[in-house]
């Protein structure tokens, strides 16, 4: 893989788009510009095979899309996804003790690896995690002895003969049922959940604590990280994200608002307050400003599929860390460095608090993250190329190739470039997902889900 | 001097954000409150360090300066000097922190009756006379928010929200360095008030007093 030299990527491209070109495939969601708050997408996640794509929204609903089976082997149409199941995962609640409303917004969805015919996923809001079983039903029983076809009970005295009910085919029905509810374990707001590779446990993290659960047991969880100070007035950092290692079931990481990542080994002790590794890059003093602390806060952390690297996202950049080197990241990619001079305005309009996520492609060669103006960025680690693409209704003709976009940072604006001041900061892409085995990506704008695939020649 | 004005503006914006975040759905967000308080701390440190460097040329209690209402998105980068001064003022803040922690070990009866001599251990700068670094206009509210909106229901707030509320109020007090002479800003009194009736309405009342103190009617 890459050497340990610290590489800093700029946004200049030698050849736009690199080797890969992306085409529009589908867009899901309402067309009108008036966005209902409940429709705002808050999380996007492919399952382990990529056949299913789940989204969660601010209204507490989960919508699952399924890849169209017939087209899976037709390259141009393999990224056609249709609605498979929709259900209300979380409802708004009121905590009477704290006099607080608990939002129903789905913060994270994580799929469990498939073990049988049914699919399982974990979805969480600020306080409660739920395990949902999604199962298909395509047969129904007919020929009951004691019931009529419409469900009315028959008088047993009228039955003269017995018959064996038979299963007859019916239209496919997809049912979602909550199998477990993991509640009352978090005082602060849950920001992450992560399923362990042992397939038996998972972690949930809030601002100050990380808890370990067994998927079967809902009335007990183990606290494995607690950074709450004895005196809350001494609070200096909070946990912003946490994830289990993809292969080592004893290892997990959590990121903080100070820009540090701690790797913990659960074999060392029951309470992992003492980290095994601390990943931190010293701050560049020339970049110091009022807002240095905010922009260094890590909003997302993701292990690479091979488990050798992890990626972190802070407000302006994406960093790739080698798990064997704690002193600095091995690669840093600037997502929208042109915003560094606008931090004051972004603070006033609250955009500086936006939490962008990031994701790896299946073979860990490309990483992707979102930006403003419905732009999203891809960084090809191997070819040292990056691209800026846009998810918009204007570029949504079937199989239309996405043209790379460029932001003009100063001086003369070239044709097709957009100037920083023209960017629409209300159109932000916070959530993106990459199919685990194919070049199909799902990009969430405020209330629409765009699906793109790489161009097939 | 522009740094000074910018610091004041950021302080005011931050305080109104903290105030507005009270009424957010889902309750006070700890992460956001922490980040806001860090920005306020930076702005306060830069403001004080630039005041100290201008000190010999200024009058004893400078009048409130009219705020520069033209918003400039560009933030003038603070000079490297404030960094070292921030370190020294941070230690000063920590000292006043530990002084306040000494207060906490006092018995309950003493908390309300601290003598002025003990209170004068709090760091007093030129800001003690009046919070002149804050702009001379009413705090901007988020659209649709009433100034005196009361929370949805008043019930007891258990520890976590208590902690968040205390933490927020504490940071504001430290930042403003308000002397408790004319208003009861004593942190122990406030904590006692928070813990006993234990309502978020109480925090709301204190924030309203704070805002009216900053912007007298």
Automatic annotation (TrEMBL), chain A:
InterPro entries: PP2A_PR55, PP2A_PR55_CS, WD40/YVTN_repeat-like_dom_sf, WD40_repeat_dom_sf, WD40_rpt. It comes from the Eukaryota. Keywords: Repeat, WD repeat. One of its GO terms (cellular component) is protein phosphatase type 2A complex. The keyword Metal-binding does not apply. GO terms for molecular function: protein phosphatase regulator activity. The keyword Metal-binding does not apply. PANTHER family: PROTEIN PHOSPHATASE PP2A REGULATORY SUBUNIT B. PP2A consists of a common heterodimeric core enzyme, composed of a 36 kDa catalytic subunit (subunit C) and a 65 kDa constant regulatory subunit (PR65 or subunit A), that associates with a variety of regulatory subunits. Belongs to the phosphatase 2A regulatory subunit B family. This is Serine/threonine-protein phosphatase 2A 55 kDa regulatory subunit B. It comes from Fundulus heteroclitus.
TrEMBL record, chain B:
Residues 47-142 are annotated as: Disordered. Residues 92-107 have a biased composition (Acidic residues). InterPro entries: IER. It comes from the Eukaryota. PANTHER family: IMMEDIATE EARLY RESPONSE GENE. Belongs to the IER family. This is Immediate early response 2b. It comes from Fundulus heteroclitus. The lineage of its organism: Eukaryota, Metazoa, Chordata, Craniata, Vertebrata.
